[in-house]
Amino acid sequence: VPGKPTMMISTTSMNTALINWLPPKEMVGELLGYMLRYKCADEEKMIVIQFGKDDDHYTVTKLYKGATYIFKLSAKNRAGPGEEFEKEISTPEEPPSGFPQNLEVVGLTTSTTKVTWNPPLLAERNGKITNYTVVYRDINSQQNLTNVTKEQSITLTNLKSDTTYDIKVRAHTSKGAGPLSPSIQSRTMPMEQGRHLLLWSDSKFLW
């Protein structure tokens, strides 16, 4: 099988990477072409592209911002692809361009509300999510309250009972905050009404 080709990669600010390569120094048999495999490190599936023997460059478009990519290039002869030249690149981070997904309430008491969510879509994260800001308010108030967490859930505390709250969340990378999610509304539980206890004593009902 062929030896390793040599590959150079340069990234641009337009979410693209220009790949150039040179044929293997050691070539057994006739060079038939090249095979490029690449993927974002956060994804499972490799993208595979075949090239002819005279091709020596390719531009990869629509790269995610703030992501690491793995590129593997091999030369091919009649015996198949040879040893791969492997290279990693990282694209610059930016604030998220999308909001967290699937915001929902998963627990309620008279004074607390637990909410969970998923990160923004991978293409809209634009880097490593460092934390989330939850913005919430009593719907009868104009005052927003905020809580910050590194987790994908939070329990809001010290809420008023039997009160509807408007809740949103946004994600942050090291470069700043992304947009707020659409809001959800959740009502805390009412305080239990005072109960009369019925006691049995000396064959009489005592209140």
UniProtKB/TrEMBL annotation:
What InterPro entries does this protein map onto?
A: FN3_dom (IPR003961), FN3_sf (IPR036116), Ig-like_fold (IPR013783), RTP_Phos/Ushers (IPR050713)
Q: Which residues form the Fibronectin type-III domain?
A: 1-95, 99-191
Domain of life of the organism encoding this protein: Eukaryota
- One matching Pfam family is fn3
Spans annotated as Disordered: 82-101
Q: Could you tell me which PROSITE patterns the record lists for this protein?
A: FN3
Q: Which UniProt keywords apply?
A: Disulfide bond
The residue stretches assigned to a coiled coil in this entry are none
Instruction: Please name the PANTHER family in this protein's record.
Output: CYTOKINE RECEPTOR, PROTEIN-TYROSINE-PHOSPHATASE
Which named protein is this? Fibronectin type-III domain-containing protein
Recall the taxonomic lineage recorded for the source organism: Eukaryota, Metazoa, Chordata, Craniata, Vertebrata
